[in-house]
Design a protein that fits this description.
The protein is built from 12 helices and 12 strands. With 307 residues, it is of the alpha/beta class. Helix 8 links the parallel strand 8 and strand 9. The radius of gyration is 19 Å and the shape is globular. The model has no long low-confidence stretch (mean pLDDT 94).
């Protein structure tokens, strides 16, 4: 999604107040943005804490400040600066973390971002965007850029099946229909499920929804999803994030507080930072049961409607 992100910011760069800061990253990817923005493209160096504080100061002076790095270096290393300088002062800094989840798989746990939105959503005055497809990025850049508060954009890899038509962007979108469980996937994991779900018979096929904006309290499930959930055998939440602080517990709490009927609940999530060996994002997802085969099995484990 980095290419789409770059293109979207190039289109937005005509705004004189827009400034882009990078933590010494983006080479062989963001050069078009650098050419378009010239002096407004700032390499902050390997100094992410300082980069976020500078972005906060710029936002406080009315600039639209974007701060970009590999995901864990964008939210974990400068967490105190995000908390104290950005969120406590209600400043609309745009944080961009590339390689969400296990995106930098072979580089090990220091480069994994599997607790990012859970950590950041503990802070006030901040929302999160998790695009599912490359096509989502332009709309999300506009929404994040126009937001009056801090935002965190978790970039990953678009994983749309060949030939599949993606619905226009919205915080919630339905991708498959059937009489099976309701499956809520966060971000790109939704794309990995489409082909497997569409090959299932309609009576077992899940209603697959993708969620791309957090927290749930500010982006509640649409009425159609809630109607399906009342009739479905259960709910499955799928996310490349650890359980604690994830969408699964938050969505379950939201439903329980409002007394929505729920026959069964299952949660597929990132299981660990440390593994005996490391590999690609696809490999590490499989270790956590986030591969399509495991997700289908989890959805099918819930009894069919009417049984």
């Amino acid at each position: 999604m980095r290419t789409q992100f770059c293109d979207a910011l190039v289109a937005r760069s005509t705004r004189e107040k827009l400034l882009f800061l990078t933590g010494d990253l983006g080479f062989m990817a963001l050069e078009p943005l650098q050419r378009a923005m010239r002096a407004r493209f700032i390499n902050a160096g390997v100094a992410e804490q300082n980069m976020v504080s500078v972005a906060a100061g710029l936002a406080g002076q009315g600039f639209e400040a974007w701060a970009y790095s590999i995901a864990p270096f964008c939210y974990a290393r400068p967490f105190e600066q995000i908390r104290n300088d950005v969120c406590f002062h209600k400043l609309p800094v745009k944080l961009v973390g590339n390689g969400g989840g296990y995106g930098y798989g072979v580089m090990g746990p220091t480069h994994h971002a599997i607790e990012d939105y859970g950590v950041l959503l503990c802070l006030p005055n901040l929302s999160v965007f998790v695009p599912a497809f490359d096509e989502d990025v332009p709309a999300i850049v506009q929404r994040a850029g126009d937001a009056p508060h801090a935002t965190y954009l978790r970039l990953g890899r678009g994983e749309k099946p060949p030939g599949h038509v993606i619905p226009d962007y919205a915080p919630w979108r339905q991708l498959t229909e059937g009489a099976g469980s309701v499956v809520v996937a966060v971000g790109p994991l939704a794309g990995t499920c489409i082909a497997s779900f569409e090959s299932m018979p309609s009576e077992r096929r899940p209603n697959l929804w993708v969620l791309s904006e957090l927290p749930v309290a500010e982006n509640p499930p649409p009425p159609t999803l809630l109607t399906q959930l009342a009739q479905a055998p259960g709910l499955v939440v799928v996310e490349e994030h650890v359980r604690r602080g994830g969408v699964g517990p938050e969505l379950l709490a939201w439903l329980t507080e409002r007394r929505y009927p729920l026959r069964a609940y299952a949660h597929a999530h990132a299981q660990a930072h440390h593994y005996a060996r490391y590999g690609s994002q696809t490999y590490l997802r499989a270790q956590s049961g986030l591969d399509p085969t495991s997700i289908v099995a989890m959805a099918q484990a819930q009894p069919a409607s009417g049984t």
